[in-house]
């Protein structure tokens, strides 16, 4: 009986882990589809972070910190948009979002995100998520292409 239970658990656990990794991948893809859509429809990042949908994908701490920064007079902490590391998002990015499956990185899960096509204007980002209230949420984004990080956490 113990052998049977052990075999069943051994067969189940790899699939349970893959589900978490692909669920996080889907969430980050959905976030970037939403975010880039809003940017492409001329909604400013300081207004996007106040939208209720952002609470589904981004940690409360990061959203609060971003709101504090955006309300500073003449803020100079953000050199570019935090989630894209670009001054302007390219319209084609919304249709060409590629996200790797998540991989463990300490208490977080890390993903690679590519916006745009390799032969044109594109961005390569690394995104970290961690559990907050039972959901995996973005708490850190790095420009992996240019090795730049705007530390807001």
TrEMBL record:
Record-annotated DUF3828 domain positions: 25-144
Signal peptide: 1-18
Pfam family, one: DUF3828
Keyword list, A-Z: Signal
Domain of life, per lineage: Bacteria
InterPro entries: DUF3828 (IPR024289)
Name used for this protein in its record: DUF3828 domain-containing protein
